[in-house]
Write a structure and sequence with these properties.
InterPro entries: Beta-prop_RSE1/DDB1/CPSF1_1st, RSE1/DDB1/CFT1, WD40/YVTN_repeat-like_dom_sf. It holds the Pfam family Beta-prop_RSE1_1st. Residues 23-146 form the RSE1/DDB1/CPSF1 first beta-propeller domain. It comes from Zooxanthella nutricula. With 148 residues, the chain is mostly beta strands. It has one domain (21-147): YVTN repeat-like/Quinoprotein amine dehydrogenase (Methylamine Dehydrogenase, Chain H, 7 Propeller). 0% of the residues lie in helices and 49% in strands. It has no helices and 11 strands. The strands form 3 sheets. It has a 4-stranded antiparallel β-sheet, with no helix packed on it.
Length: 148
């Protein structure tokens, strides 16, 4: 008879380590906080500075479904900041902090690819957030701007 066929595979258990984007200081967890937000491939980590221990403390580690291509902050006066994320497949996420649960929450989400967006940019997408915190402009496809 024929020998049984065996398939083997390798799976990594280590999370992503390469930092793609980082923004600081961000008032995400509270108005007074100065958080560091780090995007590592498919993971978003939020750190805060612990003055007593003089080190960074991980407040939240959150997996993202897709590789993060863009990370920016929408700063709102007298309120906590909001994160604007765009994945390589042009999925948009707007994330905020839920104080009662102590974790990230999705404020808005969507897909920027539609019938008008035929040619994606060869370079990374661009985002600009207005200082007033009411507007974000995204440029991810040739000839098309998206406004939040």
């Amino acid at each position: 008879g024929a020998a049984p066929c065996r398939w083997g595979y390798f799976a990594t258990v280590q999370g992503p380590t390469a930092v793609l984007h980082a923004v600081a200081p961000v008032s995400l967890t509270s108005v007074e906080a100065a958080n560091l937000v780090v995007a590592r491939c498919t993971r978003l980590d939020i750190f805060s500075y612990d003055e007593g221990a003089r080190c960074l403390r991980l407040d939240c580690g959150h997996p993202i479904n897709g590789r993060i291509a863009l990370l920016d902050v929408l700063r709102r006066p007298h309120d906590t900041d909001t994160l604007v994320l765009l994945t390589e497949r042009r999925h948009l996420l707007v994330l905020g902090w839920d104080r009662t649960a102590g974790s990230l929450t999705t404020v808005a989400m969507g897909n920027l690819c539609d019938a008008l967006c035929v040619h994606a940019l060869a370079d990374a997408p661009l985002c600009a957030c207005a200082p007033c915190g009411r507007l974000a402009a995204l440029f991810s496809h040739e000839g098309v701007f998206h406004f939040l």
